[in-house]
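pipeline/complex-builder :: batch 7 item 3
reading input block
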Amino acid sequence: MAGVLVLGEALEGAAAASTLEAIAAGRALGGPVAAAIIGDGAKSAAQDAIAHGADSAFVCEGGLGPEAAAAFAEQTAAASAPRVVLGAKALLDGSVMARAAYRLGAGLLQDCASVALDADGRLTATRPVYGGNAMAAFRASGSPAAASLRARAYEALERDDSRAGSIVPIEVDAAAHTRLRVVERVRRPQEGVRLEDARVVVGGGRGLGGPEAFAQLEELARLLRGAVGASRAACDAGWVPPSYQIGLTGRTVAPDLYLAVGISGASQHMAGCSGARDIVAINKDAGANIFKEARFGVVGDWRQVLPAFVDQLHELLSDR
Amino acid sequence: MKIAVLAKQVIDPETPLSAFKIDSDAKRVVTPPNLPPVINGFDEQAVEAALRVKEAQADVFIAVITAGASFAPDVVKKPLAMGADQLVLIEDPAFDANPNPLFAVDVLAAAIRRLGGVELVIAGRQASDWDNAQVPVGVAEALGWPIATVCQRVEARDGKVVVERVTPDGHEVVEAPLPTVVTVSNELGNARYPNMRGIMAAKRVEPTRWSLDDLGVQPREPAFELTDLRLPETAKLTEFIEGEDDADAGRKLAAAMREANLL
């Protein structure tokens, strides 16, 4: 059928948001889209996938690791002979797209912002390179070609429960394929909203000068019912845990409002927040890169600007 | 135990944006003048991870493999100055500016085989030029070894490797049998600076130079053609809020954001 194969995952019985985004990208290429869903509750997640635009689905039940997922990808590709393979960059542990592409002999473009087909049906894609300092466009020389997608590069299609499609279970011999053994999972308890789900994100960077300042950002985030993130510099300095990192190699956020305090706006950071509808920046350096993408900016010392801003905010929001 | 570290020479990612130029006709980043290249930051952390394994046990030998079109001799020797034992250089014009990860996989996997006896390969999670994050995975697939990606801690003992993988909300402890491939991330912590003794020792080490012929690898066409390379468009007009002092500017910012329905 020479269409698009989307590699996706089930999270607690529902298709992952990133999987639905990849299906939307596959439909934008013209489809038909076969979704290969792995994970706990893959079968019900496959219903989601079809309702959100997939034409058919393969399912593999169980909380399997990236090695089994690569084997599943190989088996589903053999069954569907796709011209294009798509999936979220962060699928499972973030290695599955690269594993699958190598096994399929497909070239892979990672972390793509957009994908398309040219007049000859060859896959083209754009992606940030050089830490986000440049954008590159590529065209596949052959087929199949694979692309992994940046979080939120595509918006999931509206759910349509009248859509129907075949759901084919695939057996993967997980034991034969699995050499990595997860001994322990350590999760930091999530306080408040998840960064990716927050409508408002308050980010702090090197300019804050130390960990203490993040208490003020947390207070501001609570006030705006948002979440706190940070630049890589602030994480590497140990001021906040690594899970706060927003950027090319950290988390990708696309809130309505991103309030950046003491963040210079290096390209690798902007790659994780440029999807924000509005960016507001407080920074002492008028030449800081963050101001190139900000709607509002204050050039000043955050120690003076922020408390006054928060006080004013209390007043403005009290009549809400 | 023999460890191979994969290290790539890249344009300094700390290059100020004002000095970051693109030749869009040639579709290349213009090498900034007076700014020497560096070893990819995540790869320096891979060297650091290997050195920590070496410090934790006896008889560890670290070979660093660097492949590219041309090298700055002092730059590629940095891993030796940090404490690595051997440097393998594969210098060939076939590594031109266009990314060709599958070719890099062919070359690096062949070099690991030629080194012989390698039980652990450590690489950075991705290179700061093309940010492709797929060569180490390809190397593992080509060798038929397992790979654990994006690690913040690497220990090797009793025929297996134990790593901490960074996850979005914490980490997971993962074991894999040797031989295996591991990629590391910035959460590992800073790579050490070479000390004077290391720098002097590195000067005396002659790199091992292998050609594509030595490795029995043919150049291959890239799977993707680079059709365009440009600076990202960011043309938002910032409205700068000013006040009598910084605090006043903060108050006015809140008012302006309210006015614009941002709050």
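note: Chain A has a mean pLDDT of 94.
queue -> next item
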